[in-house]
Write a structure and sequence with these properties.
Length: 335
């Protein structure tokens, strides 16, 4: 937005404030600063010009959402409280701490939602590292939005909580692969379980829809991985999916579980490894732990065969052992 260095030249005490209406996401852009370089006295023989702050920001924002004044913004916020309603088809609802929340399913074929999405997507630039806007002309996208529903003085009021974009790839021969792309819960609502609610709903939708083969995730963050692991483990444990499993687990068993619960193969193996570690007693059953260790190490070696190929046998064993220790620590953290 402001060049590769993401720096703005020529201001002291610069603040760029973006105010959003809770439901419609009508926006007010407001900048303030204590000093600007072209307004300061200088002995330099050249004149210095401060960078344009607002134009790059306005290019990122939805043109229809930006208010021209604080008064207009205040009017739109007041109208929002009474009139705004979420777009799309309501497909799920849940309650958290006596407050109702609703999830809506949307597509870019709906031009009104397409415009609303232009307002939503500005958040990813601030909260998702390396994020980019998606192509809203591609109708293979599905977008799930989450709203808080409140009763304010007899009027129903909605506030935007978060959203998820899901792309539908072709899966040979006649199905689709669902891939989560962007997944965001706004900071005021984080740490309250809304991400888990949204992820569990989407996974449930994929599982009960025959045309979907599985659910994958594009470049997940560490916090998303943790949330995903805990919810996938909860699902599999609730369905006794690990009953009778012992290391080593063969490829056929992995494939069967993957197909039944529509997880990616890698995520299925990860959950199996976590579950096997959960029920292990290393002190009392050292032989079982040895089998588990060999099972995980074989997987680590296979996934890193190219990078290990240039090492001698001793170095390979050391690298795999280091990786196993890190994996085991990570699994204990999840458990």
């Amino acid at each position: 937005m402001y060049g590769q260095q993401e720096r703005v030249f020529g201001y002291k005490g610069l603040r760029i404030n973006l105010h959003y209406a809770a439901g419609s996401l009508a926006t007010l852009l407001d900048t303030e600063y204590t000093k600007r370089i072209d307004q300061m006295e200088t002995s330099l023989p050249v004149s210095l010009k401060a960078d344009d702050v607002e134009t790059p920001m306005r290019k990122m924002l939805s043109e229809s959402a930006v208010c021209s004044s604080k008064e207009e913004f205040a009017q739109r916020v007041a109208a929002d409280t009474r009139e705004f309603r979420p777009l799309g088809k309501k497909c799920h609802e849940y309650v958290h701490q006596d407050i109702a929340y609703e999830i809506y399913d949307n597509a870019f074929a709906d031009k009104e939602f397409c415009e609303y999405h232009k307002r939503i997507q500005t958040f990813v630039m601030f909260y998702i590292e390396g994020a980019q806007f998606i192509d809203d002309s591609d109708e293979k996208w599905r977008v799930f939005t989450v709203f808080e529903k409140l009763d304010i003085q007899g009027s129903t009021s909605y506030s935007f909580v978060g959203y998820c974009t899901m792309y539908q790839f072709f899966h040979w021969p006649d199905r689709k692969r669902a891939r989560i792309s962007q997944f965001l819960v706004l900071p005021p609502f984080q740490g309250q379980g809304h991400g888990s609610q949204l992820y569990r709903f989407i996974h449930s939708l994929v599982r009960r829809t025959p045309e979907y083969a599985d659910l994958t995730v594009e470049d997940p963050s560490e916090s998303f991985d943790d949330m995903r692991d805990r919810n996938d483990m909860r699902l599999l444990l609730d369905h006794n999916a690990f009953e009778g499993l012992e290391a080593p687990v063969d490829a056929q068993t992995v494939g069967k579980m993957q197909a039944q619960y529509k997880l990616s193969r890698r995520q299925t193996v990860r959950c199996i490894e976590i579950a096997l570690l959960k029920k292990l007693d290393k002190a009392k059953r050292p032989d079982e732990y040895r089998q588990y260790r060999l099972f995980v190490k074989r997987r680590i070696y296979a996934q890193n065969a190219d990078s290990l190929s240039g090492l001698d046998d001793k170095e390979k064993k050391e690298k795999v052992a280091e990786s196993f220790a890190a994996v085991e620590d990570d699994y204990h953290r999840i458990l």
